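Anyone up for a design puzzle?
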């Protein structure tokens, strides 16, 4: 298994090109199941999770052709089973359920099971599809779903916000008969990106960017070309890299509107963020201050930025409190950061961080995707050498990490 070795202490300077968003690309790829015609997605990042989605769709019969940064999806569904072997690698595999059901009236999709950051059930996905006329049974670790008469429109009020459930139902509703209204829908930029792609494929959707999405089902969808939006989490992560090293980075393609709460917290902490014609410039010349943060659905502070922001707060002056409200077990980076000299205590869903002047390099272990990058950030700021094991977590969602960071002065290398 690969590790990453970092010799910390270099302020990062230069530009980093932000890649297409992983969390937008995954549902967009699932849209390949909604038509036999060719769907072309541009601005796709070379990520392990997208390779997993490629494998999943291929075994459903879809031709997935990568050409540079473009993915061409097309062809007929020949198999409606999403097997455990692929689903267990990536929870977002559940996103094929809605499209398969809407398209071929029957699907068998393995239940994803728990994951490192919590239990993460899929009940909202299933209840929503049931409200649209699907019959759902759980059998042998699989969801067996059928809708022989096709799906019909329904009004679905989510009891709490779920990104994945909103996406699954948005895709399914596009091909259902009649009107579907999704209330308390997720408003993440990736949802709007998905809705835009569906509209380009012939769907009728209104309420984009709001918590109520109204979908008038159509009989069929057609091919389209859609550019995947830039990854706001990757951008926020590299903003933290500039901040923690006292550097100055231009994050090309990053969009301020998608990063509102993160930029707000960075500025509160003493980081300068300015919009430039090609992206966002993030720089820090003075000290960092501790600020409190609570994760929330968009437009709140994203849970996917919590671990990285905690690394930053670990070296800020004063104390800060980070409260995680989305996932119940998302503090696995805390003991690893503490091994590097951070002073962090967890009390229930909150972490109290008492800033230290300097972290020190240590061998640490990556536990999940975003937690892994918090260790990279800590390593970039620490004195001495940090070795991060199990970097396959990082490869799931960050493209060319070492290359992007090394080009800005970081002393970082991958060790096989
Ligand atoms: C997506 C993102 C993930 C991000 C998360 C929250 C993708 C591929 N992944 O995950 O990176 O951290 O949004 O922004 O886009 N829940 C239920 N029942 C359900 C569905 C969700 O109880 O049927 C719970 C989850 O356990 C969690 C909360 O709802 O506590 C939010 O989860 P959700 O928004 O669905 O996250 P994902 O779509 O899995």
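Challenge accepted. My sequence:
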């Amino acid at each position: 298994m690969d590790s990453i070795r970092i010799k910390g202490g270099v302020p990062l300077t230069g530009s980093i090109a932000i890649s297409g968003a992983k969390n937008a690309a995954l549902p967009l790829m699932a849209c390949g199941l909604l038509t036999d015609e060719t769907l072309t997605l541009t601005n796709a990042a070379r990520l392990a999770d997208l390779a997993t989605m490629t494998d999943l769709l291929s075994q459903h019969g879809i031709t997935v052709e990568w050409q540079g940064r473009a993915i061409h999806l097309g062809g007929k569904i020949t198999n409606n089973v999403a097997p455990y072997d692929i689903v267990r690698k990536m929870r977002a595999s559940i996103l094929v359920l809605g499209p398969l059901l809407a398209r071929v009236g029957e699907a068998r999709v393995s239940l994803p099971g728990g994951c490192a950051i919590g239990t993460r059930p899929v009940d909202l996905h299933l209840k929503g599809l049931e409200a649209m006329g699907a019959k759902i049974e759980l059998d042998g670790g699989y969801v067996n779903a059928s809708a022989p008469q096709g799906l019909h429109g329904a009004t679905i009020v989510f009891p709490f916000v779920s990104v994945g459930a909103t996406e699954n139902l948005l895709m399914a509703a596009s091909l259902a008969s009649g009107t579907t209204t999704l209330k308390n829908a997720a408003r993440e930029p990736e949802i709007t990106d998905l809705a835009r792609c569906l509209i380009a494929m012939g769907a009728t959707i209104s309420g984009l960017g709001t918590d109520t999405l109204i979908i008038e089902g159509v009989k069929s969808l057609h091919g389209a070309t859609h550019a995947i939006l830039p990854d706001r989490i990757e951008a926020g992560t590299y903003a933290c890299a500039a901040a923690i090293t006292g550097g100055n980075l231009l994050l090309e393609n990053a969009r301020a509107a998608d990063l509102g709460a993160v930029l707000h917290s960075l500025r509160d902490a003493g980081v300068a963020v300015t919009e430039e014609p090609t992206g966002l410039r993030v720089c820090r010349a003075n000290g960092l201050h501790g600020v409190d943060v609570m994760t929330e659905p968009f437009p709140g502070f994203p849970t996917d930025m919590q671990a990285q922001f905690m690394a930053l707060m670990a070296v800020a002056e004063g104390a800060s409190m980070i409260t995680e409200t989305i996932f119940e077990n998302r503090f696995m980076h805390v003991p690893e950061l503490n091994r590097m000299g951070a002073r962090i205590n967890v009390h229930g869903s909150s972490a109290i961080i008492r800033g230290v002047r300097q972290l020190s390099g240590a061998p640490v272990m990556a536990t999940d995707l975003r937690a892994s990058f918090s260790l990279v950030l800590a390593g970039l700021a620490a004195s001495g050498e940090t070795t991060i094991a199990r970097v396959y977590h990082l490869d799931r969602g960050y493209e060319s990490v070492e290359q992007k960071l090394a080009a800005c002065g970081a002393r970082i290398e991958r060790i096989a």
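A detail worth pointing out: The chain has a mean pLDDT of 96.
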